[in-house]
Specification:
single chain, mainly beta, Immunoglobulin-like, four-stranded antiparallel β-sheet, 1 helix, 37% strand
């Protein structure tokens, strides 16, 4: 059985967990969404075209490492403009490595993600891959 078939529906359920909005002790209402620590747009440096399909990434923080597999939706379709998203609601200082066949590996280091009142403060980066 394809792991995507198992994981993608589970991720959908994960976003529904705790659908009630939460209110902080300061009276601030927090949304029930789950924010990624980092989003990664993947583009071809020479053309500026989005090329996320078949790209993967690894993010690392002290004692923490996650591989982001190439994105496809529940129907097995990829959209090159999709951003890779990772480390939901986890602050830290990350090193990011992006890989795609036919391109040189790309890395960015010491990306600091801080916590906000309700969610992490998502850092959006663009990986400009070169052939």
């Amino acid at each position: 059985m394809d792991l995507k078939v198992i994981v993608l529906p589970f991720l959908g359920l994960l976003t529904l967990v705790g659908c009630d909005e939460k209110t902080t002790t300061d009276g601030i209402t927090c949304t029930a969404n789950v924010a990624p620590a980092i989003t990664i747009g993947v583009i071809d440096k020479a053309t500026g075209d989005f090329i996320a399909c078949d790209a993967s990434a690894v993010i690392e923080d002290t004692g923490f490492s996650v591989e982001i597999p190439p994105y496809v939706d529940a129907y097995g379709v990829c959209d090159n403009t999709h951003t890779l998203q990772v480390a939901h609601e986890r602050s830290g200082v990350y090193d990011v490595h992006v890989f795609k066949e036919g391109y040189l590996d790309w890395s960015m280091y010491s990306i600091e993600v801080t916590s906000g009142i309700c969610h992490v403060n998502t850092v959006h980066i663009i990986a400009e891959l070169e052939k």
